[in-house]
Amino acid sequence: MLLGAKPHVEELGPFVYDSVQKRSDLQWNHSADTVSFRQRVTQFFNREKTLAATQGRFDSDQVKITTINILFLGMKIVVGPELWHFILDALLWTTDRKRLFDDVAVRDLIFGYKRKLVGAGGLAIELPFPGLVPNYTRDDKDPECVSSRLPP
Questions:
Q1: Residue 5 falls within a domain, yes or no?
Q2: What are the backbone dihedrals phi and psi of residue 107, each rounded to the nearest 5 degrees, phi first?
Q3: CB neighbours of residue 84 within 10 Å
Q4: Could you report the per-residue pLDDT of 56-70, keeping only the tens digit for each?
Q5: Contact of 144 with 36, CB cutoff 8 Å
């Protein structure tokens, strides 16, 4: 693709996940007509349904796929233009392909992963990607407090 060739694309999956939602700390505010609560949503890989949906091809979500390099493409926004140029100069991904694409397990893409880049002089930086649908399983890290309007 870097040389103008058409990409070879193969559809994989579907990878099936079950979702569990837990709500706690419910607080009713009758005067404002609202309810507030903490909500935790956790996804679990469903091996049996994935096996069935893929006709036995996949029994795990540890399958690596090639995707855009989310960390490289999102890094400029997170670190700012000056540090981004420093990282590009000092911690270069070894090839243009590695800058543009990443091989990531389906599970890591969904729930998150980290990449450690080592550059000149042993300088290292760890770049985290939180995941497309991260599990928030620790109560002290639960970021969601949802406030909803009650029906009339």
A1: no
A2: -60, -45
A3: 15
A4: 999 999 999 999 888
A5: no
In a domain, 113, yes or no: yes
Query: Do residues 47 and 60 touch, judged by C-beta distance below 8 A?
Result: yes
Q: Alpha carbon of 133 to those of 23, 36, 55, 56, 117: distances in Å?
A: 18, 22, 25, 25, 24
DSSP state letters, 107-138:
HHHHH-EEEEEE-GGG-EEEEEE--SS-----
Question: In the chain, how many domains are there?
Answer: 1
Q: What is the predicted pLDDT for the residue at 135? A: 63
Q: Which domain holds residue 82?
A: 17-149
Could you give the percent of the chain with pLDDT greater than 70?
80
CB 86 within 8 A of CB 97: no
Over 50: is that where the pLDDT of 151 sits?
no
Q: Is residue 1 part of a domain?
A: no
The per-residue pLDDT for 74 is: 78
User: Residue 8 domain-assigned?
Assistant: no
User: Distance between CA 54 and CA 60 in Å, rounded?
Assistant: 11
**Model confidence, pTM:** 0.69
